[in-house]
TrEMBL record:
Keywords: Membrane, Transmembrane, Transmembrane helix. The lineage of its organism: Eukaryota, Metazoa, Spiralia, Gnathifera, Rotifera. This is G protein-coupled receptor. It comes from the Eukaryota. The keyword Membrane applies.
């Protein structure tokens, strides 16, 4: 879906005046730009939204399906509770599935915003903006443990048990 980007990518050179106290120095800067036609720009924008929202929608729908199907199975097996009570109970048990997906889309959205700004701004004038957006794009993959393991009671318990086993093995081997 992003193959067109390589075809329209070009290097552009410009001069930047760097003024020190004693002299003016001209520095050559090279920037990688992509220039699209209007139709290709709208395609690129829709693809960027698809890459952000597509997995989010699929993950949210699968989490909701897990909650509702488990609640339906439990309500048929356990008649003493109403179906809505089973849904609330399942939501509390699987809330990390919904919360983690929302956190991931929120953490990924600055990259989307920056992709719309990138051609309008000169990177040498806003280096911290480009650098921060670059590092922000890594935040979801860095925080996978925090997003998925810590909110879940089951994953957290398995993680603690694994750590205990590793430490007890290490102590017994020494």
């Amino acid at each position: 879906t992003l193959l067109h980007e390589f075809l329209y990518r070009m290097l552009e050179e410009y001069n930047q005046n760097d003024t020190n106290l004693d002299f003016v120095e001209k520095k050559r800067r090279i920037v990688c730009l992509t220039r699209y036609s209007a139709s290709l720009q709208s395609y690129d924008t829709s693809i960027l939204f698809f890459h952000l929202l597509g997995p989010f929608i699929i993950n949210i729908l699968s989490a909701v399906m897990i909650i509702f199907r488990t609640a339906r199975q439990r309500s048929t097996a356990q008649n003493r509770q109403k179906y809505k009570e089973h849904i609330v109970q399942q939501f509390h048990e699987h809330k990390q599935l919904v919360i983690s997906r929302i956190i991931l889309v929120v953490l990924s959205s600055p990259r989307l915003v920056a992709s719309f700004l990138s051609e309008c701004l000169n990177p040498s004038h806003y280096p911290w903006l480009f650098l921060s957006v670059y590092f922000i794009s890594f935040v979801p993959s860095i925080l996978i443990f925090v997003i998925f393991v810590l909110p879940s009671k089951l994953y957290r318990k398995i993680f603690k048990d694994t750590l205990k086993r590793c430490f007890t093995r290490r102590l017994t081997h020494q």
